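Before the break, one more example. Copy the sequence into your notebook; we will annotate it together after we see the structure.
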Amino acid sequence: MTNSQRVIVNTIAQYTRTIINVCLSLYSTRLILSVLGQSDYGIYSVVAGVVAMLSFVTNALVITTQRYLSFHHGKKDINQVRLVFGNSWLLHLFLGILVVIVLGALGPWITQNFLNIDDVRRDAALFVYFAAVLMLFLSFITAPVRALFVARENIVYTSVVDVLDGVFRLLIAILLSKITYDHLVSYSGLLICISIFNLLAFVIYAAIKFPEFHLPKLQELDKQYIKGLSNFAGWTIYSAGCVIARNQGISIVLNLFYGTIVNSAYGIAQQVSGAVQFLSTSILNAMNPQIMKAEGAGERQKMLRLSEYASKYSFLLLALVAIPLVAEMPTILKVWLDNVPEYATMFCRLILVAALCDQISIGLTSANQAIGKIRTYNTIFYTLKLLVVIIGWGCLRCHLPIISIMWTYVIIEFVTSLLRLPLMKYIAGIDMVQFCKNVFMRIIIPCLIIIVACCVSITYVELTWRIVVTMGMSFVFGSIAIWATALEMTEKNYIKQVIGNIIS
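Here is what the structure looks like once it is written out:
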């Protein structure tokens, strides 16, 4: 299988996984919200969210491990790959234990003094907290194994595991109403079982299939590798931490000013955004190993070109779904949820617009990671993202409408997305004019066509069928516009070749 074919297969696998999991997640959330109620659902969102603020460490370490594994795969040095994996797993284990100790000690204080939770639900909230801490530890020791799958470009298996994860969550949602014990506590306990399953699924398969997989010994600890991994991971942790702190910081600010009911609305918006963004990040995740390998092989221009493709494809895939969702959000939430929390529609709409803004130049982040010079980039770019929490708190403190914090979110996402270009000009010498020509100019017409299709559907179609028609028209006319204006001739020819090979 060629590199391009592998990217296509992996993208299809992730796209299929995402569609299935989005459907499963939407129905699961409907059931969970119904069983728990808005108050308990809000408690779970804000309490688990506090722990989730540190899940960025796991994500950052996955990125770090995958970068080094793919980089050395590009150099075709299997011994280095093995050393990187072993030292990475030891680093994950050490940090996981450290995080558990620190968070475990802080748990009672956080749930009793830091969060706005009713006294009668504080014991349940504390259990949710410790359950989230345990799941965080399991994700720590799963992360390097998952990174190995990504570096190996075995996305099909990871997609299968992720689908099973979604199926199990749906089963939990169905069974929860039949459990007589505290529903919030039961829900958290059952989620721990899913985390254990994910760990075993990846470890067992990797032990059988991948020669570089092994349970490392302390004697394998290499200071040089630990230093390199730690330095890269440190700045990646900072960037991921800023994003998580931004997301959860908004949740905490909303909790302080409006209570857990508003957290329920924001939690739904975050779930919608996360589910939809998976559609766009599927192509990015499939292309990331190729971007890293190109840099490892010394092919800088190829790497930068791949990052342009990643930005364009990720944005367009998200636009095909996000724009019609924004247009039909009130109806979608009514169909999805029995009782739509106040502000949920507005939160969902604006958070999707913010996601679109971020995707415009998302591939440049992968390019920067491939190069490895991330200190300047991450310090400037991700620090600016934190301004949402500060400015948002100031807006609510000054009694401005709640929508002000979400518009602040959108504006800063747009500004930071544009900021990627001068940053990568400085770091990698990227041609900003070429990037604008190859990416920005080619996404304008498809976006306008999708918006027009949505407007026509909303104006002329009866409500009963409007959601289906809006999504269908957006996809059909948007796809035509993408083919006609967004794709270069070389891209069109390659797609025709792939389709021809499949048919034949």
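The mean pLDDT is 82. The chain has 17 helices and no strands. Try to locate both features in your own notes.
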